[in-house]
Write a structure and sequence with these properties.
Layout: H1 2-32, H2 46-59, H3 69-82, E1 87-94, E2 99-106, E3 109-110, H4 116-120, E4 122-128
Antiparallel strand pairs: 1-2, 1-4, 2-3
Helix pairs in contact: 1-2, 1-3, 2-3
Length: about 130
């Protein structure tokens, strides 16, 4: 129970951190500040990935502003990296009709969104932690 409260707190702090970095440094500041995974590798734990994604989904409706896919993905990746998961933010696009989207992958698996984006969009950039 205590770890879950800590997870919620960490996610909220990362959401504020993202907004601050975006306001002061723009995308470049967000891009260069994705951390490397913690020394303790957690062996791509699907339970951890589900817990982080689920907790963030419960927080987002109460956040003070609209949360876009990039913010959700960066926050998810930062928290997963803090727990030792080798998460990467993937930005994809489709030209016609235009669509752009960001999601998180761990070991090639989409962890915070539908895997359909991975199949239907061209990868523009992978931001590895």
């Amino acid at each position: 129970m205590a770890w879950l409260l800590l997870l919620y707190f960490r996610l909220i702090m990362e959401m504020f951190r993202y907004d601050l970095a975006q306001a002061l440094l723009g995308f470049r500041g967000i891009h260069k500040n994705l951390p490397t995974p913690a020394v303790r590798q957690c062996a791509n734990s699907p339970e951890l990935e589900a817990a982080v994604s689920g907790a963030l989904s419960r927080i987002v409706p109460f956040y003070w502003k609209r949360v876009q896919c990039l913010q959700r993905s960066v926050v998810t990746a930062r928290v997963l990296c803090a727990y030792g998961a080798p998460a990467e933010v993937v930005i994809g696009y489709r030209l016609a009709p235009f669509l752009a989207h960001a999601w998180v992958e761990v070991g090639g698996r989409v962890v915070n969104d539908s895997p359909a984006f991975q199949r239907r969009l061209q990868v523009l950039e992978r931001i590895s932690s």
